[in-house]
Amino acid sequence: MTTLKQVKMDKTYQDAFHELGRSWEVSPELFEKLQEITCHMYLPSTHTTEVNKLRYELFCARRGEVESSQLPPCEDCLFMHALRANYQAAIWRRSLQSQPFVANPTDCGWMTDEDGKLAVNWMRGSPAPDAVMQLLSCKCVRSCELPKCTCLSNGLKCTDMCRLQTCQNKAIEEEPVAQQSDSESDVDDIEED
């Protein structure tokens, strides 16, 4: 069954979409419903209603052999998308008002880039813990370029786990500054006397 057919048949889903744009904020209750809908879009037979749990279940079921496009968005990304969709729906709901109040888009899933233009704010936090980020890798051979490089496709820097070790997408590692302890500096002062 397609998602659209499911929405047409399920009053709970219709109510969730009907709530979009009524307020400039996305309530926790609305977001729970949107998570459930998203879970059923990716796996209609699931009883899981949280996208992060479903991501984990799908990842484990495929023993890690899964492209990121086959997984639902993480909770943080879905929330930011819900904020943007809600913002647009709120503008449409107020389109017939002569002077509607319009919330600041930077409070609704958007940000301003270095040129001051609106840009999508994809997520608030890191896509994964740092330990996991170091395990990600691409299989590029000659160069890391879109759309083939999975690191670039996901907005990440290449890591030491990547096949190509000389690409332009690697993070620049900074040399740690050696810190001299107080006792060492005291020894230096004594030797100078």
Provide keyphrases for this structure.
globular; mainly alpha; two-stranded antiparallel ribbon; 3% strand; 41% helix; Tesmin/TSO1-like CXC domain-containing protein; 193 residues
The strand order across the widest sheet is 1-2
Return Rg in Å.
24 Å
Mean pLDDT: 85
CA-based shape: globular
Number of helices: 8
Alpha-carbon distance between the termini? 85 Å
Helix content: 40-55%
Counted beta strands: 2
Describe the biggest sheet?
2 strands, antiparallel
- Helix/strand order, N-terminal first: HHHHHEEHHH
Strand content: under 5%
Taking pLDDT < 50 over at least 5 consecutive residues as the criterion, the unreliable ranges are none
Helix/strand-derived category reads mainly alpha
Multimeric organization: single chain
Please describe the topology of this protein.
Blueprint: H1 3-9, H2 11-19, H3 28-42, H4 51-61, H5 75-93, E1 110-112, E2 118-120, H6 130-133, H7 150-153, H8 182-192
Antiparallel strand pairs: 1-2
